[in-house]
Amino acid sequence: MACSGKQEPSELLIKANGIHVASVKLQEEIENDLDSLKKLPELKPQADSLAEVLENWEAALIEIEGFEHEHEHSEHHHHKHSPAPDMTDVQMLEYQQNTKSAIVELQESVLKLKSKK
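RE: above sequence
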């Protein structure tokens, strides 16, 4: 009897990972936008402040165990991949939904700042 001992992830974890991957993609877009905004002296202070918020968001980022890293690392993309704390699948999904909401709010702030160019 061949048994790998590896359990397939639940539908909830698959969904949570999809949200995580989408959040990291937004993060990378935001980093690129902030890099451009920091080059404009009149917007640099606000861009620096938003970059700090992004760093704090990134520090709290948790990946879902058992999934490959599906994102590229840019030159300034230095987040560490924190191991998942002991969470149920439902809790992990909720956590990923909350982190996605936070990064979407940050993106909206960056887009407002971009509109001032």
